[in-house]
């Protein structure tokens, strides 16, 4: 089982629950329609990785604030990269088919460590730098669905186990990447840096 670090302990999430199309500017940059209800999809435990691998020229990164769940509530904050096979997703969307092949592949949920958080969620904001250039930036106010709404909607049809992760959606600025690209993901509470994680894109090793 793949793990994440929380309070110096290794935790095995049963799943990563992803919120799609949660920022209007990102919806517009991909030419999608604003959904009538919250878009939800899962990544399995095997998708979790602390290493960013290069999965091909059509693979896109999406930086996101990540929430770790304990007791049905947010206990920790981290940063995540939701990797997407954009070419496969476009084909599946055109055919009206599920997204798993494009979204749920192994090592497609690249996650930082998590830190405890019990403060004001409305203070949260994120930044993602790629090769020292600010690529994505967003805060709580830009989320269409706030964290409490995400949790409530998910619980309507799915149990959130202790250690599960919620990826809260990505703002505009998603793109493809190459081997050697340098990523820095940050989450702030107001001006206080909560999490900073660095990755360098690695060649995909196939056992």
Structure characteristics:
8-stranded mixed β-sheet; Fumarylacetoacetate hydrolase, domain 2; mainly beta; 207 residues
Fold and architecture overview:
It is a single chain. By secondary structure, the chain is mainly beta. Helices cover 14% and strands 43% of the residues. It has a single domain (4-203), classed as Fumarylacetoacetate hydrolase, domain 2. The strands form 5 sheets. Strands 3, 4, 5, 8, 9, 11, 12 and 15 form an 8-stranded mixed beta sheet that branches.
Q: Tell the overall outline.
A: globular
- The CATH topology turns out to be Fumarylacetoacetate hydrolase, domain 2
Q: Which consecutive residue ranges, at least 5 long each, have pLDDT under 50?
A: none
Strand content: 35-45%
The CATH first-level class comes to: Alpha Beta
Number of strands: 19
Q: Can you say what the CATH homologous superfamily is?
A: Fumarylacetoacetase-like, C-terminal domain
Please tell me how large the radius of gyration is: 16 Å
Instruction: Provide a count of the helices.
Output: 4
SSE layout:
Layout: E1 4-6, E2 9-11, E3 15-20, H1 24-29, E4 39-44, E5 48-49, E6 53-54, E7 59-61, E8 63-70, E9 73-82, E10 84-85, H2 86-95, H3 100-103, E11 109-111, E12 115-116, E13 124-130, E14 133-139, H4 147-155, E15 165-167, E16 175-176, E17 182-189, E18 192-200, E19 202-203
Parallel strand pairs: 3-15, 5-11, 6-19
Antiparallel strand pairs: 1-2, 3-4, 7-10, 7-16, 8-9, 8-15, 9-11, 9-12, 13-14, 13-17, 17-18
């Amino acid at each position: 089982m793949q793990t994440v670090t929380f309070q110096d302990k290794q935790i095995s999430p049963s799943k990563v629950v992803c919120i799609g199309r949660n920022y209007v500017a990102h919806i517009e940059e991909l030419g999608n329609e604003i959904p009538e209800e919250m878009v939800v999809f899962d990544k399995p435990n095997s998708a979790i990785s602390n290493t960013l691998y290069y999965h091909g020229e059509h693979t896109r990164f999406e930086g996101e604030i990540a929430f770790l769940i304990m007791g049905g509530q947010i206990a920790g904050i981290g940063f995540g990269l939701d990797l997407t096979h954009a070419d496969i997703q476009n084909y599946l969307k055109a055919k009206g088919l599920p997204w798993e092949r494009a979204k749920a592949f192994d090592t497609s949920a690249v996650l930082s460590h998590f830190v405890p958080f019990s403060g004001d969620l409305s203070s949260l904001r994120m930044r993602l730098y790629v090769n020292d250039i600010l690529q994505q930036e967003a805060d709580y106010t830009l989320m269409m669905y706030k964290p409490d709404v995400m949790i409530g909607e998910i619980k309507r049809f799915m149990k959130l186990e202790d250690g599960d992760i919620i990826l809260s959606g990505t703002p505009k600025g998603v793109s493809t990447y190459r081997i050697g690209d340098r990523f820095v993901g940050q989450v702030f509470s107001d001006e206080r840096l909560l999490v900073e994680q660095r990755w360098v894109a690695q060649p995909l090793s196939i056992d």
